[in-house]
Amino acid sequence: MTAEILSGAAEPYRIRPGKALRAASDAVPPSGLVLLAILSVQVGAGLAKHLFAQLPPSAVVFLRIATGAVILVAVARPKVRGLTRRDLAVGIGFGLSLGLMNWSFYEALARLPIGIAVAIEFIGPLTVAVAASHRRLDLVWVVLAATGVTLLAPWGQGGAAVWAGIGFAAFAGVCWAAYILLASATGARFPGASGLSFAMIVATILITPVGIVSGGAALLQPEILLLGAGVGLLSSVIPYSLELEALRRMPKRVFGVLMSLEPGVAALVGFFVLGEVLRVREWAAIGCVVIASIGATRSEG
C-alpha cells in the first residue's frame, strides 16, 4: 500500500533510492516508474493470493509486513529520542492503521477478485482527496464512486463470504484513509524515515501473534518463507522505491492521476495472473472508481 504517497505525505520522509536504482530508473520515464510500481504491488497481491492455498491471509500478511520491516529498519532505524508521548502515540496510530489495512485487505482478497477488492478499498484515499478539495465538482466524483461500489455489490446473489469480503475491503479503505492522515502527521514529527520504520515495527508487533498462530509450522518451510519475502518485496520495498524516484521527477498531481489507475491494473493482473474473469458490470464499476479517483485528484488544491 502507498497511501502516504497518494496524499503527498511521503515528502517528509526523504528516503533516497540507492545509486544503482537511481541510475537504472533514470533510463525510464517517471510515468513508466509509476506504472511499474502499480504492477509490482498488484503482482505481489496476486502472489499473496496464491499463497492462501497454503497459508491463511493473516499469516501471509505477517510475512509481508515482517519482510518490509526488516528491510526498512536496516535502511532507517527508528529514532525516538527526544520525542514526546504525543509524537509516539501518532507513530503508534500510524503503525496500527498500516497493520490493520494490510490484514483487512488480504482478508478481502481471500473472498473477492483482486480488482473488486482494490476498487472498494480505493474509496479510502478517494474520500481523503475529496475532503481536501472542497469543490462542488467533487460531488460528481462522490456519486460516481458510490455508483461503482453499488455496481460491485452482489445484490440478491452474493453469499456470506462475498459480503464479508466487501466488508473487509471497505474496512481496509477506512484504514487507508486513516493511514494517509497519520502518515503526514508522523512524517512531521519523526526525523527522516524513522517514523515509517517505527510504524512498520508497530504493525509487525500487531500482526505477529495472529500470523504465527494461524500459520503454525508452515511458516518454517523455506519455500513458504521465500514466497512470503517475495510478497514483501513486490508489495512494499520495490514499489515504494520506484514511487519515490518518480515523485522526484514529476508533479504530485500527475503522480496521483497515474496512481488512480491501480484498480484497473489490479483487475488486469487478476485476469492474467489469477484467471479471475470479471463481468461487464464489474468492469464498469471499476471504471467508475478509476474515473472518480482521477477527477478528485485533478481537483485537489
Number of helical runs? 14
* Poorly predicted runs of 5 or more residues: 1-15
The global form is globular
Backbone CA Rg = 18 Å
The amount of helix comes to over 70%
What profile does the largest beta sheet have?
Answer: none
Q: How much strand?
A: under 5%
Structural class based on helices, strands and sheet pairing:
mainly alpha
Roughly what is the average pLDDT, rounded to an integer? 85
Listing every helix as H and every strand as E from the N terminus to the C terminus, the arrangement reads HHHHHHHHHHHHHH
Terminal-residue CA separation = 23 Å
Overall structural domain count:
1
User: How many strand segments?
Assistant: 0
How would you portray this structure in words?
- With about 300 residues, the chain is mostly helical.
- The chain has one domain (about 20-300).
- About 75% of the residues lie in helices and about 0% in strands.
- The protein has 14 helices and no strands.
- It is globular and about 50 Å long.
- The model is unreliable at about 1-15 (pLDDT under 50).
